[in-house]
Structures are given as C-alpha cells and as structure tokens.
Here is the input.
Amino acid sequence: MGLSERELNRIRKKFGMVYQYAALLDSYTVLDNVAFPLLEHTKLSKKEIRERVLEKLRILGLDPKIEKLFPNELSGGMRKRVGVARALMLEPPILVYDEPTSGLDPLTSRMVDDLIEEMRERFNVTSLVISHDIASCFRIAHQAVLLIQGEVVAAGPPDSLIRGSSETAREFIEKSGVDIDRLSRVPRNGHPATGAK
Here is the structure.
C-alpha cells in the first residue's frame, strides 16, 4: 500500500531541489520564482513572503534589487543562486543538486562548489549532489557513490575511491583527466578540507 498524497507532500517538503539549469520560470520575476514554494505551501502574507525572499537573496550574496529581474537577465551563477534560494524557502533538511556545475565555466563551477559547502554549513543541510564532475566531487564531497549503469561500483570518501579496491572506480577517475592530487578542497569551518563528499 502506497502513501497518500498528503503523506507524500509531507516527505517532499523535506527536500529542496536545485535543478541542473536552475529551472526558473521564464515568465516569473526573481521574486516570484523564489516565492513559489511559500505561495504553494504556506498561508503567509505577500509582505511576509517578500521579506523572506529578500532575506534569502541577501544571504546568498545577491542584491535584493534583482527581485524584479527575469531569469534571462541573470548570469549563470546568479541563476544558480536564485535556484538555491528557491530550494531553501521551506527550510528543508536535505538539498538535492542535479548536475550543479553542468554547462558552467571552470570559475563559475568552483563558485558553485563553494556555494554548496556554504549552504551545508550555514543552513545545516545535507547536500546530495548528482554529478559527472569528478573535480567537483573531490572538492566538496564527504562521501561518494559511483554508479555505472545503475549499479553501485564503489562508495566511500572520494580519496578512498582512487586508492580503493574497485578497479572500475580507479579507472573511471583516472580517465576523467582530473589530477586529484592537485585539486584544492573547499575549506570546512575555516579549515582546509582533507576529504571529499
């Protein structure tokens, strides 16, 4: 017997989703995009919703004046941050990122890595990152799971995957072309990171 729609919605609220290309609604302003979860799931006034949206934009390093802009007026990095702001509006304990660095230049990709770590620490959320970006994985992950054709071939801290018993994992990482030993890790709590997620 499956869960009722009400039970499913209760579970869904525990997850914030950050989509690959932010999945912002083109005909909505930044304010309306970020406010969407609150409009759908709360009875807050328009004033309260706007205050919460502007607060999240500020926290994410965005000028609240962008509230009136449309997605096509934002840079790729700004769109990612607006997508994260929307995902955080219901204060979920888990944020799911779908290919967060896909299609971004290397500098913006590293900024997104830093943002994921910052969100984890600032909002005490668990981050589940789905990615093909090996460099990103080694920069931010505490634990990693390597899936190939739907099968788990290796799991553990990323550093252990490159030195672990799974030949498939070692070969996959080596063929990615990423020099794991030269990667800078995202600092955690003001300290250099030594492992990955």
